[in-house]
Write the C-alpha cells for this entry.
Amino acid sequence: MLLSRVLVTTCTVAASTLVVANRARADQFVAFDLAYEHSDATSTYSHHWVAPPASAPPSLVAPIDYSKGTIHYYMEVFTKPSAEPTMFHNCFGTSPHYICGPYSPKYTKTGTYEWSANVSAASYLAMADLTLGFKDKTSFIITDGGYNNVGKEDTGGAAKSKLFLPTQLRVVVTWVSAGGTYVRPTASAMPPVSSDGGVVAVSDASAPKSEPDAGAPRPEVDASGPPPAAPPASTAPGSLPGKPVVSPDAATDDEVPAVSPTPRSSSGGCAIATQVPGPLTWIVPALAWVGLAMRRRRTGVLQKQDV
C-alpha cells in the first residue's frame, strides 16, 4: 500500500513538473533565429526578405495576446566592412499592412547587441490586423547612423554600400506576451574570429539572461528617429525570394518541444516520461527502497510477536 502511494505521488509530481515547464515557455515564441549574409546580392534597397516564420501562432492576439507584450532583439554581428555607424531594424509581414520594429542601437564594430520595445510602439500598428498573424515576408534592413538605407540602389550607390555591406549576422527576434518572462537566446557555440585575429567582443556581457515583462510602458527605442519608410514598389513583400543561410545552431533552446501524453503501464501504474527533469529520476527508486525496507521491518516485528 505504501509503495503504491509513493508511485502515485511521484507520477503526479512528474506530470505537474512537465506542465509547469511547458507553461513557462508558452508566453513567448521565437519568430526568427537566422544567421545570414546581408549584401547587395541578397537584398534590394537594403531589404533582405525572409519567409513568414513557421513558429509563429496563427493569431498574435488569441489565445495568447502578444499585442500588449514586447519584441526582443538579439543580434550577433560576425563581420563588418568598416567602422561606420550602422543600425538594423525590420518590418514584419503582417496583414493587411506590415509593422516595423525599433531600430537597433548604433554600432561600429562586431559584437553582440540587444534591444527591445513594446509591440504597441511598432510603426504602422494601426494599419495591421494582428489576429491574422504573419501572412507575408518579413524584411531585415541595414541603415547608416542617419536612418538611411545603404543598398547599391539607394542614395550613395555602390560606393556607400561598400562601407556597410556585406555583413554577416545572426538575428534572433522573440515576441513575449505581457507579464511573460523573456528567455535570452544562447550565444553561438563558436564565436567567429574578427578581422584582426581576435575573438569578437561582446558589447554587453553583463546583460541579464532573463527579463520580466510586467507590462509596464517602455520608451520606444527609435523615438528620436523618423518612422521607417515604406519599401519601394519594386521591393514589396513577396517580390524577392530572400534565402537566409541558416546556421547549424539555428535551433534555439528557447523552443521546447511539446511533450506527448505519457501512456500508462499495462499494470495500471504510471510510466515515467523521459522528459522528467534529472532530480526526479532517482526519487522513485529511493522511495520504493524505503517502502520495501519499512515493509520488511514490519514483517520482522510481526514474526517476533508470533514467537
